[in-house]
Design a protein that fits this description.
With about 290 residues, the protein is of the alpha+beta class. About 20% of the residues lie in helices and about 30% in strands. The chain is built from 6 helices and 17 strands. The strands form 4 sheets. Strands 3-6-7-8-11-12-13 form a 7-stranded antiparallel sheet, with helices on one face. A 6-stranded antiparallel sheet has the order 14-1-2-15-16-17. A hairpin with a 2-residue loop joins strand 6 and strand 7. Helix 3 packs across helix 5. The chain is globular and about 55 Å long.
Length: about 290
């Protein structure tokens, strides 16, 4: 039940930011993997990271499960839940790089410096619906990617052939597909792509109500209007504050006491500054904030 966005400041700073909403109670720890770190997907041969990586990860049975991250070339990636839409292979494919969904972020960040490199390499990748090392289910994910040039792309594995698609609204939540989300935004604002920014600005100026609650389509519309309906932030500092403010509005609170089974709640907000190679993790509990610069 995550929400994510990309944002560019007037000074040229490019950000990717997201909420991590997940039912598990294991901590997502700020984690650095150094250049030349060897990591092993559960299928196939080990990989050696070409770049330094920082992100939020769960440490499970000696393996790292990254929810989002940044590498030293300014490429970032975040995974979000995408139920009832994914099409994975059932078995490893000959001659391909076979990855489970949990392996994908490390493959992106350890082997590539730009979105263009990822796009060129996807024809060699097969996503396999196999259980990962330390968990008992196959996760339906899609991914938001951004790099230091300001390029933004989404991977939605709705077919076994993997292709990046553009994200003109710079927002991603969960199911349905991105195109469906965009259509819903246009219908909500009674607008089209050419006039969306003006429509979003007018909506906020008139103080009209925004969609509420955890439903992905509502979070997508609310985040899009808040992102496009306000003036461009001037500096990196302003952009970080803007991203945090927008995402604070879609946080899902943790319930008091023992968490009900499968109750999603927001563990943290991460803000990734690709221009200055900074990773910020802002936990929603009393854990200290973290800022790591590569």
């Amino acid at each position: 039940m995550c929400t994510s966005l990309t944002l560019t400041a007037a000074d040229g700073t490019h950000l990717l930011a997201r909420t991590m909403d997940f039912p598990n109670v294991d901590p997502w720890k700020p984690t650095i993997l150094e250049t030349s770190t060897e990591w092993r997907p559960i299928l196939g041969e080990p990989h050696t990271s070409k770049y330094r990586i920082v992100g939020s990860a769960r440490h499970l049975n000696g393996h790292y499960l990254f929810g989002d991250g940044l590498n030293s070339q300014g490429l970032s990636c975040a995974e979000l839940y995408f139920p009832n839409r994914v099409h994975y292979y059932d078995e490893p494919q000959a001659g391909m790089t076979n990855l489970t969904p949990q392996d994908f972020i490390l493959w992106v960040l350890s082997q590539h410096s730009t979105i263009a490199e990822v796009a060129a390499d996807l024809e060699n990748v097969a996503l396999i619906g196999k259980v990962w090392y330390a968990e008992n289910k196959v996760y339906p994910f899609h991914w938001l990617l951004a790099d230091k040039t300001g390029a933004t792309a989404v991977l939605e594995p709705t077919t076994r052939s993997l292709t990046l698609i553009s994200d003109p609204l710079n927002v991603l939540t969960n199911t349905p597909e991105l195109a469906n989300h965009i259509e819903r935004v246009n219908n909500f604002l009674d607008t089209d792509a050419a006039h969306l920014q003006d429509s979003a600005s007018q909506w906020l100026t008139e103080n009209k109500p925004l969609p509420e609650g955890p439903i992905p389509t509502n979070r997508f519309i609310r985040t899009t209007i808040n992102l496009w309906g306000q003036p461009q932030p001037a500096t990196a500092h302003d952009a970080i504050a803007r991203a945090e403010s927008i995402l604070q509005q879609v946080i899902i609170p943790r319930q008091a006491g023992k968490q009900p089974t499968n109750h999603n709640f927001t563990h943290y907000i991460s803000i990734i500054d690709m221009s200055h190679l900074r990773y910020l993790q802002l936990p929603t509990d009393d854990t200290s904030k973290s800022e790591i610069t590569l």
